[in-house]
Structure formats: structure tokens, C-alpha cells
Specification:
This protein has a 3-stranded antiparallel β-sheet with strand order 1-3-2. The protein contains 4 helices and 3 strands, in the order αβαβαβα. α1 packs across α3. It is globular. By secondary structure, the protein is α+β, with helices and mostly antiparallel strands. The longest helix has 15 residues.
Length: 96
Amino acid sequence: MLTRAQKQEQIDGLKGELAPANGLFVMDFTGLSVAEVTELRRKVREAKGGYRVVRNTLARLALAGTEHRALSDLLSGPAAVAYTEADAVALAKALA
């Protein structure tokens, strides 16, 4: 179990990654094999993006107060976020 300080550290780190993002996508990754997730991460990196599996509560707290706060409603069940400060269209194509 994480301490309150560890949780706050994760929230701050996640906020630092997500707040400046031009493109932010929330997805459910259930049903993907390890090989498929590895390939997805590779494609996201090629599109100059990031991919993280997130704890919903911590992600909601990280998104609060940012322009992406509306995405908090999508965080339920197993969730991951893909984000980029570069071209959001290139990231969307990589995710598709």
C-alpha cells in the first residue's frame, strides 16, 4: 500500500506529464496481450508520445485543474493514458 506522500508524488509526476499535453487519450487495455501492449508502446514512442497505465483515482486528481479535466469521467476500470506534446493526430493514428 502506498503512503500518502508516495501517492502525492505520483499525482505530481502524472500532472507534470499530462498538463502540457496537446493530445490526451484514455483507453481500456483489457484483452490485449503483452506482445500487443509492447507493440502499442513502441508505436506511441515513434509518434513522440507517452503511454502509462494509471490508477483511476490518482489520474483524476492529476487531471483536476487542467484543461483535460473533462476526461476524468472516462477513467473507470482498467485505464491507460496516451499523451503527446507533439502531433496529436500522429498519436491517434498510432493508437488506431
